[in-house]
């Protein structure tokens, strides 16, 4: 076990004894250790390199160097790919014209990521489903492509051509190489993100991110309390670390007891009634999700500990630290629609897909967004099966919501019945959809769907054909999406209002 673990890890072997003791792969041990180190460095960064004491130049340099150190510790020489991808894209930004810069950068950045994913999967280690060097590259890809579209918006478009959120996100000058590398490779987000906007990151570095979010009353107080110009993230960090501990404990306790792979076991399929197969599928996916909760919540806590992620104040005057949060656990577990689940899962990636693809693609933006998401995730065939299925599920869920939901809004009791039914349907549909995402290969994925007789695929196709969404409805749906997008980005727009 130790030999295989060491061979599969390209980073430091300093923690190999610990890996042997706890019986976890060394690359995963390195990842968690680096994130804990980053958390400690974030506290130090906020206290000793505060913007009031240190220039933005020094903060950029330290954040970048610490990020490179963590990358080297985790991934060894493979971390050079981070520099190669960033360097190539920056060269395109500098030497190509502003009119087409965003397109060329998008192609180069995505192309380099896909090339690395193909090499890792089909040349080195197919099926290694653990920490790998393409994970940070996926986040860097999001940052680079977001940045180039925001530069294009800021330097080539008029104000009237931009949405309110695009106006805030637009970058009005070309970033320097140091600012660019700091944004892409800082120690707070180099390993697990999350993605953030360039303007929010530079505001954090320069110390201008703490702004009052509400109007003062006649007594010079905000919501009955004195304004706190720079709130403390201590409570938010402690709360998120507790969530991390609970999530990790649940995952380690259940992941081996309820493996998703068991859903394709011949004895299980042949001897287990269908309703029990449905229950097992839901429980196995429920046991798998805490791993992502742990990684994303820890990454969010690291950024908060450094002073990044403040989004404003609640009505009671308490600070909110969810500007770059990547997951809302209750929103996921209580989701009553496919869209609600997606909106609360990997939030920053969903925003990235919306900003660079959904809002800009002139033809079938839903299918284009799912395709880009599949390409970004990797080259395993299971990803494409999942997102192909997800496209059908989304269309069917939209048709049901537009055509059937209004009949259940006549009373609270009917609405409750609708919510319960749609919660059950959503959890089953999500579990059914993401099985290939976990199994990765075509054979096991098709074996699973065959054991279910492709029933949900067929039901969704029938729903789409029987309950089509009219074009007017579709436009209303797009308007709702825009409203929700603006609501998500409201913490950005409030800065302008406060000013």
From TrEMBL:
Where does this one sit in the cell? Answer: Endoplasmic reticulum membrane
Which controlled-vocabulary keywords does the entry list? Acyltransferase, Endoplasmic reticulum, Membrane, Transferase, Transmembrane, Transmembrane helix
Source domain of life: Eukaryota
Region Disordered, as annotated, extends over 476-499
Basic and acidic residues: compositionally biased ranges: 476-487
Q: Which GO terms describe its biological process?
A: lipid modification
Checking Pfam families in the record gives: MBOAT
* Molecular function, one GO term: acyltransferase activity
Q: Where are the transmembrane segments?
A: 29-49, 61-81, 101-123, 382-400, 420-442, 448-469
InterPro entries, sorted: LPLAT_7/PORCN-like (IPR049941), MBOAT_fam (IPR004299)
Determine if NADP is one of this entry's keywords: no
Listed GO cellular component terms? Answer: endoplasmic reticulum membrane
Q: How does the protein associate with the membrane?
A: Multi-pass membrane protein
- Name of the protein: Membrane bound O-acyltransferase domain containing 2a
Gene designation: MBOAT2
